[in-house]
Amino acid sequence: MRTVTYGAACSLDGFIADASGAIDWLHFSKDVQAHNASYWPTIDTILMGRITWEVSVRLQPADGKATPGIATYVFSRTLASLDRKGVELVRGDAVEFVRELKRKPGKGICVMGGGVLGTALIAGGVVDEVGLNVHPVLLGSGIPLFRDTHRRVGLKLSETRPMAGGCVLSIYRVKK
Of 132, 133, 122, nearest to 174 (Cα)? Predict the structure, then answer.
């Protein structure tokens, strides 16, 4: 069965963006680039919620296409359509959709950023791994990495290492 990883960069106090939605505090480095270069070939699917999608559209080149070889799904109850070729809008139950995706052949599945979608998938028991790049900043408030999962979720540390800029990469396996 395919592995679902919820990956995000966050502040030390657990936020993925500040109260205004800004991510200008994120530190991008050669360490992050190297980690991403080794991670991206292991996946063939990206999942994101509406807000993460809207941020990614602002950051991506405006060529109107999805990443080649990567299936991209955006989960939203408010969007009517998407303007990128190869990107599918999912308006139904995210947990059931991901449960079905996991049963299909393929590589890993990345849940990119987004506390609402990530938390829903963790609460639904379909996330296998949580990968965090923790940044040395306290934002005080903002968009939380996790919301109420309505249950305890046990994790086992599988990797941790320092990254440039004082960041720490930690990868946890979800205990089943």
Answer: 122
Strands (E), 32-154: 43-49, 71-75, 87-90, 108-112, 129-135, 143-144
Report pLDDT digits (tens) over 2-33: 999 999 999 999 999 999 989 999 998 999 99
Report whether 129 contacts 1 (CB < 8 A): no
**How is residue 48 written in tokens?**
């994101």
Query: What is the C-alpha to C-alpha distance for residues 47 and 117, in angstroms, rounded to an integer?
Result: 9
Query: CA dist 92 to 73, 77, 88, Å?
Result: 12, 8, 12
CA 82-84-87 angle, 5° bins: 75
DSSP 124: T
pTM of the predicted protein model: 0.91
Using 50, 70 and 90 to split pLDDT, how confident is the model at 175?
very high
Q: 4-174 — its CATH code?
A: 3.40.430.10
| Rounded distance between C-alpha atoms, residue 87 and residue 110, angstroms | 14
Chain-centroid distance of CA 105 in Å reads 21
Phi and psi torsions of 143, nearest 5°: -90, 115
- Residue 122 parent element (H or E): helix 115-123
Domain borders along the chain are 4-174
pLDDT tops 80 at residue 131: yes
